[in-house]
Amino acid sequence: MSQYIHQLADWPHFRWDQEELSTPLAEVRLRQGRLIGRMESLGFSQRDEAVLQTLTDDVVKSSEIEGEILNSDQVRSSIARRLGMDIAGLLPSDRRVDGVVQMILEATQNFAQPLTKERLCGWHTALFPDRSSNIRVGAWRDDAKGSMQVVSGAIGRERVHYEAPAANRLESELAAFLDWANRTGDIDPVLRAAKAHLWFVTIHPFDDGNGRIARAIADWALARSENSSRRYYSMSTQIRRERKKYYNALELAQKGTLDITNWMQWFLGCLTRAIAGTEASLATVFLKDRFWKTHVQLAFNERQRSMLNKLLDRTFEGKLTSTKWAQLAKCSQDTAHRDIVELMKHDILARDTAGGRSTSYSLARGDGYLNS
């Protein structure tokens, strides 16, 4: 009896119950459409902000799944530079961060380009910029150190979760995978992303980095499903939240049959939760959009616009007082007071309950933009 699916006689002829998947697939497609529609209603700068936040989360969380911690500020700066975004406070980023960012952006920005051996090896090279490492960089593994096994546990009590195909099978295995991955029209593009992820993980062609590249392939396929390079949700962020279930789902799929209905169901459920989670992670973006659309007819000065953005971003520390306004806006106390009074007249700011020397102000809650 075969132990792993790549050892089965009908490998790699995956199958699944289309009727069983019809409802969760329809829900994913509905959520995709709603989110894209909502994001496209935003201004260019807000869409860029959302893309930057989503891609930053995607890069950081995909690495965290493998136990590698990246500096999120460096990741954000690296993405902003590569996308030509003009943001304040850019930090220098190290080669490791730049490499992961390069891989994710190459996968999603060039979603219309076919997946090839050269692209995959280029992603692997970007992931491992240090050529002095003890792994084969930018090339398939050769099994010189033995068969490729995914194990856990202490030495002597290891548990083998999975054993990949032998290295001498890789060229033919990858050729079959890439031929299928670049087709269109045979199955729903979201199901293609789920199948591609599992198929690539099963082949496990590199010494290291297979999980991150498999998730990049899924991102590439999902971008194709939307015909858009703009990423508004992060599958990797949700997988990080469900890491144990993710690995369990992969392991069960490797040791089962080529009926991958259960894997497809898990993937669709995770994707649904990822898209739903975007509403929370991008709440500030939506809040700011509602605010400025509500008050589009008002003429704010630059001090007011800057201070309101700080409040909307929820990055303002402590209570807003006229003294703090004057300090941050670099203006006189009288000017700060006039700015605040004008905003109170338009019911944008409201005086907090405490008065006297401790008078402070907050965004008014009479408008719908705060009900998020």
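The above is record 1. Record 2 follows with the same two-line structure.
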Amino acid sequence: MHATHDLNSPAGPPITFDAFLAVDIRVGTIVNAEPFPEARKPALKLVIDFGPVIGRKKSSAQITEHYTPETLIGRQVAAVVNFPPRQVGKFMSEVLTLGFADPAGAVVLFKPDQPVPDGSRLF
């Protein structure tokens, strides 16, 4: 599955509400971030705390255009938490951190506009 960053692409095909609910998107707080120099494309390794039920999960995120590790600590982000883990080089990425492409195609992270409890589910 490849995400499109094309602003000119139409909306995807219709899905059912149950299909939407199958994608578990949660909010978590970044508790650790570090460079990922071994990645094929510039990326950062993140550890995100999704609260007491889901816990801390790792994510490889191609977000180096707008973010440095030190600016990410304490920031809330949204992520898909129910994809199978994915091996990225020697790193196991457990969640997909969500963002949007800016006009140049660089990732801008998605976050709530007010703090919410870690582990809150998007609905």
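The radius of gyration is 14 Å.
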